[in-house]
From TrEMBL:
This is N-acyl-aliphatic-L-amino acid amidohydrolase. It comes from Riccia fluitans. The keyword Metal-binding applies. Its cofactor is Zn(2+). The active site is at residues 80, 145.
Length: 436
């Protein structure tokens, strides 16, 4: 793959980040913190490291804007990555090997070390070009996203450090796009993790009777499977996007009594349990779902109980639906869209993220938040074997962030070229900025 010497340098910084192993279940966050501090220093950013929880540092960089009264922009990414199944990888997941085609293989190459480094590279370029942001730009690197962000983003967004930043707009992660349009996410499904416990008659395995625990549970599994199918069918037919339906998957089942060689076969167990990962769309009718659970999936009449391990809301802290407007009513959206287009990109129809990201902690505070990971023509490989990102696509994403940052924080006088940031005119962004 032909890369210029400058591009080589940029790509090798990405590879260096990817080579720092921050894999769950017990990531060591200190080496990556050290690496990031060095990056911030090189670029010339103010740096702050806060351990809201010991051993789980949040790294916060700031590029001070010229007008400190304006709400700032926060670019968030997480430093942790999910585990790998080593045997399935054709290149070691923490070697960040680039092949002939320029594909860089590493855990985190899509989710989401790419985005974190792209933020920094875009800032590096804008600084070098003499760009002066009006609003401050903050870049946060948080731990623990992959396990829910409780010791990471949740603490950070709940802190006085965060409040002091006066953040008006947040960017967090999205997903790769398999076609030429960038994907962008304006909301996400909320997590309902629950399990259903069934009680029932024990007895000899040869006997037929009503009300055995596993039979009580089986009726629920069938009902849940029917619901799952009806939601899935809407996706398959193209009527709805994945984030617009509610998903539910049975993720564990336990019953029976183990023996050294297997399970006891001739005793009907008196208890059984099933766990479910359900993702509720912000468009869903929550009362109807709750009713399903109470009356069909886990009715007491069938000797069933349920418990939530996690029951997320679809509303923000003010009781509004936790969605970011993606139309002309939201000036940030207008600026975002123009910037992507100015970078030569096109956007797909905005989507609801199917899983959970740290973006929800910002959206819950009513802060406009977009999920965006600039990767086009890239197979979605997050959490998968052989996760990779092409170097050219990575470099292209940096250009997109340059435009976004100019659009969000500029005075409206910037041209499309950061190296020529004092010319051109942008009346539209000027009017928009007075609204923000
Ligand atoms: C609710 S915490 C879990 C967060 C996790 N995020 C990424 O995969 C997810 O399962 O969506
Ligand atoms: Zn992620
Ligand atoms: Zn992830």
């Amino acid at each position: 793959l032909p890369l210029s010497p400058k591009e080589e340098e940029v790509v090798s910084r990405f590879q260096e980040y990817l080579r720092i192993d921050t894999v769950h279940p017990s990531p060591n966050y200190y080496p990556v913190t050290e690496f990031l501090i060095i990056q911030g220093k090189q670029i010339g950013l103010d740096t702050k490291v806060v351990e809201y929880v010991q051993g789980k540092p949040v790294i916060l960089f700031t590029w001070q804007g010229t007008d400190s009264s304006l709400p700032s922009v926060l670019l968030n990414s997480h430093t942790d990555v999910v585990p790998v199944e080593l045997a399935h990888w054709k290149h070691p997941p923490f070697a960040a090997k680039m092949d002939e085609a320029g594909d860089i293989f590493a855990r985190g190459s899509q989710d989401m070390k790419c985005v974190g480094m792209q933020y920094l590279e875009a800032i590096r370029n804008l600084m070098a070009a003499g760009f002066k942001p009006q609003r401050s730009i903050h870049v946060s690197f948080v731990p623990e996203e992959e396990v829910g962000g409780v010791d990471g983003a949740k603490k950070f967004y709940g802190s006085s450090d965060f409040k002091e930043l006066n953040v008006g707009m947040v960017l967090d992660e999205g997903l790769a796009s398999e076609d030429g349009n960038y994907r962008v996410f304006y909301a996400e499904r909320t997590v309902w993790w629950f399990y259903i416990t069934a009680q029932g008659h024990p007895g000899h395995g040869s006997r037929l009777f009503d009300g055995m625990a596993l039979e009580n549970l089986r009726i629920s599994l069938d009902a849940i499977a029917d619901f799952r199918k009806s939601e899935f069918d809407k996706v398959k037919s193209g009527e709805k996007a994945e984030g617009e339906v509610t998903s539910v998957n049975n993720v564990y089942l336990t019953a029976g009594r183990p023996t050294p060689t297997g399970f006891v076969m001739n005793v009907q167990p008196s208890q059984a349990e099933a766990g479910f990962d359900m993702r509720v769309s912000p468009l869903a009718d929550l009362d109807a779902l709750q009713k399903l659970l109470d009356e069909e999936w886990a009715p007491a009449s069938r000797n069933l109980t349920y418990r939530f391990l996690q029951k997320g809301k679809v509303t923000d802290d003010f009781g509004n639906l936790a969605v970011t407007a993606v139309d002309d009513s939201n000036p940030w959206w207008v600026l975002f869209k123009r910037a992507v287009e100015k970078a030569g990109g096109t956007l797909a129809k905005p989507e609801i993220f199917m899983a959970a990201t740290d973006g929800r902690y910002a959206r819950n505070q009513g802060i406009p938040t977009l999920g965006f990971s600039p990767m086009t023509n890239t197979q979605v490989l997050l959490h998968d074997h052989n996760e990779f990102l092409n170097a050219k696509e990575y470099l292209k994403g940096i250009k997109v962030y340059e435009q976004i940052l100019m659009s969000f924080t500029g005075t409206g006088d910037e041209s499309g070229d950061p190296s020529n940031s004092k010319t051109g005119s942008g009346e539209l962004s000027e009017t928009i900025h007075t609204e923000l």
